[in-house]
Amino acid sequence: MPIPVSTPPPTWSGRVDGSTSEHLRWHQVVTPFDPAAEPGATVLLGFASDEGVARNKGRRGAAGGPDALRSALSSMALPHPIRAYDAGTIAVVDDRLEAGQEALAAAVGAVVDAGHFPVVLGGGHEMAYGTYLGVARSALRTSDRRIGILNVDAHFDLRPDPVASSGTPFRQILERERAAGTGVQYSVIGIAQPSNTTALFDTARRLGVRYLSDDDSLDRAAVHAFVLEFLAGVDLVYLTIDLDALPAAVAPGVSAPAAFGIPVETVQFICDTVSASGKLAVCDVAELNPVYDIDQRTARTAARLIHRLVIGRSK
User: For residue 56, what are the CA distances in angstroms to 38, 128, 165, 246?
Assistant: First the structure.
């Protein structure tokens, strides 16, 4: 079935060294999504929104993230051929964030039910609620399969605000699961103490959230143990990467630059471990704000992580 989007995929272009397998780059393999495609492909979906960031009192610009990520991915060289499609972009119009989240949920669900691997390009972290809904409503979600959400982030995003924003998605998820009598495991790597009030830490404890601080994330063994414990308790993984978990020198183009952050090597290690588990159902990358990106540092770093995940999953 067609994927419901606001705008069709752009034409991908980039450097061409040749057309045979040893020369391939992303732009040479990505084509518009084909509803009749054989299952097992990677499907890119854009989510052009910074309405949630604005509601969370952040700086606008993340709506330009999807196309900046496409551009950064375009000329990356592939170690082997992959099947990849671009389904286009869902845009939040005016302040209709909730409608955008529902549209994203429908698109993610359609991709998952078609047997593909969705990679959502953001966009503010308000996208997380839509990405989650897509998996939660899909055929993959059965009574004997537990969803695990692994968030690489400096923030819990558990704010109690009455209006949805980039700071509320995981509280919304946990409350929805509780109301339905079901549950997900929500775990976070990279939590910055100065960026989260005591009230948010209390909320995290009350909701059973497991987390690793940015300080503790410098210990590779601790990260490995944390991720393995998370993977052992879940069946389907939704990996969400908020680029503000990275140091501002590496990721200046985000809604809220990190004063400290966790090394990109650590985030790449997390991607490798999760993709090798065989449990990864969906991932998204949030908070790329090209307005403030210097030399495309943030976009290039994010594209490298997406590249790593897709290649690792396709081995």
Answer: 40, 14, 6, 20
